[in-house]
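Regression test attached.
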Amino acid sequence: MALALEGLCVLDLSRVLAGPYACMVLADLGADVVKVEMPGRGDDARAYPPYIEGESAYFMSLNRNKRSVTLDLKNPAGRRLLTNLAAKADVLVENYRPGAMARLGLAYDDLRQTNPRLIYAAISGFGQTGPYAQRPAYDAVVQALSGLMSITGPEGGPPTRVGTSIADVTAGLFAVIGILAALYRRQETGVGQMVDVAMLDSVVAVLENAVARFVATGEVPAPLGNRHPAIFPFEPFDTADGQVMVAAGNDDLWGRLCSALALPSLASDPRFRTNPLRHDNYRAMREILSEAFIQRTTEEWRAILDAAGVPNGAINSIADLVQDPQIAAREMLQDVVHPVAGRTIIPGIPIKLSQTPGTIRRPAPLLGEQTGQVLIEWLGLSGEELAGLRNSGAIG
Amino acid sequence: MALALEGLCVLDLSRVLAGPYACMVLADLGADVVKVEMPGRGDDARAYPPYIEGESAYFMSLNRNKRSVTLDLKNPAGRRLLTNLAAKADVLVENYRPGAMARLGLAYDDLRQTNPRLIYAAISGFGQTGPYAQRPAYDAVVQALSGLMSITGPEGGPPTRVGTSIADVTAGLFAVIGILAALYRRQETGVGQMVDVAMLDSVVAVLENAVARFVATGEVPAPLGNRHPAIFPFEPFDTADGQVMVAAGNDDLWGRLCSALALPSLASDPRFRTNPLRHDNYRAMREILSEAFIQRTTEEWRAILDAAGVPNGAINSIADLVQDPQIAAREMLQDVVHPVAGRTIIPGIPIKLSQTPGTIRRPAPLLGEQTGQVLIEWLGLSGEELAGLRNSGAIG
């Protein structure tokens, strides 16, 4: 079966997370992604713990479906090779500090001279423009600056970092969307363009209604713990052996919840009949529900709430998640056999296409594993030329 | 200037967040997005507080650039109109419970009979398949089940919900990628397909290395507060008047940090020279740095760390964010004048395309604001036909 992005050639010059994540999404959907790495060292993430048989589990989970080519961009012949590869590519992705590619003579304005069809995506902490453009950034800095930490955490407690690098990942996703939109446009015009995505912009774009709430009310949003700012109840309750998350998103669900709790009179209690009333009498509601939920185990409550049609969930650990039957049915954790690390488990593909489903076709590459193969395939180099480049240090 | 997705016709049958967010991204990049709503009621989010002049700030922040058409899908003539609109559309997005569209005769398998080019995106809590497919879901339930809460929160503290509805938003972004990939494929084949995206799958796909860490080590990841699991220091420190986030992502940055703190001997201290050593002697490192940071204000430290090239950031509130000069330079908060609510501020567009930049062309629509306009434009209906449909209750 064909893949959605089959035939799309992508050069991945990025490291660690945002760029590699974007290129992984493209590769999962069928693009031919060639990861360009520094000889002898490679992507910084190859050195991130933990390791399986010396291979980084972090790197392996972000670079499946790619091929690796080692090119020294500080070597003039290495830079020429990169320019030649970019002349054959549809898409180039990099996440260097703004200006770094220009200093190598590899900026978009350089590369489009030989390939006007090229789509050049630059992912950075703060973007290619603005007063912070040259500042270094990591995910934690962006989570802090963006206001995301200020709305995450225990109620009344300190701002809290989201436990996954969400600034990197959302920037990667917005970059993929920009690349695919530019490809759509290119079908009309035959010309590529530059896609400039910043981690800070990306987090601001996913703050949901925090900005809207502040603008409308003037109140500065604060961490709310596990409560929802406007829906009640929409939070976890302690059970006999753990917790259960309950989301009664409207008055109908409130009625179902009261029946499920065997507290039918609660549904008609004038203090709680509507969501605004439950807001006003939140403490009283919470107390009554808490007394009920503590009587049974999480598993018992989940069965009862499921039967009543009340949205609910266990608060799973990663160990629980790995055992979840829905995750298995959706193939969201997949076995991959790596030539060195052996059998590992990596996340599956969340975009399910009916006609051209994405696939995991190969494990993450070893450093420079396909250098010769790609240079022969894309540039038609001979064995002698490869040997010469290897001797000069241009390729690894 | 043209827009990247100009000419792309999108029917938005979705409510609240994941689907509307996906359609907003398409609209920002130039698609003609027609939001189909229930007469007299519309998108549930129109009723979400807070309000500005009676208009929901939540709804307004998620539906700019769209037009609104009110169609009653419980009315046979309303359903026929929807089928006719879908025959003209490139893309349809819905986020009903799986099966709901089929019960209306509006499933992908129905609509593709008249429009084989249609790309049909269904966003749901758990996906169209698997044992949980029919379960209701809200963001909080998905954050709980996915393991994301289990890795977010204060160190040693309870699992914590991310303060934005990240399950909805990431599902919306993956749906956009699926739609654009299906469009790319359609250029070859002339045929559309179905895009099935689940909130649960989407969060699993953005857990970064949590699954990889668990698989490699067998240790169940827990909330780490604001620390990083593998990089030291990479966390906030208390200052004389607040906090500053410091991310010394490698040994070179550690050296720069020591100089910035006027503690040059620290850089050569054998306890802290490398990242693994700083891991082993974390408590001692944290104590020395804490004593230093408390001596000056956040603003003083930020200037010093910026000069030294050490990644750092204030932990901004939403009120701080709104004042940030980088946000202004990147146009990440934009003024929009709404006909009822007046001037409001909504998030900008994080995808910066050099040739076909996205634009905010119109505020969120009033309920049914463009019903007549769209039905005339897309279906060529006459004024009499519109009046008849209105009388029958098929349109609002």
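Expected vs. actual: identical. The first helix of chain B runs from residue 18 to 28.
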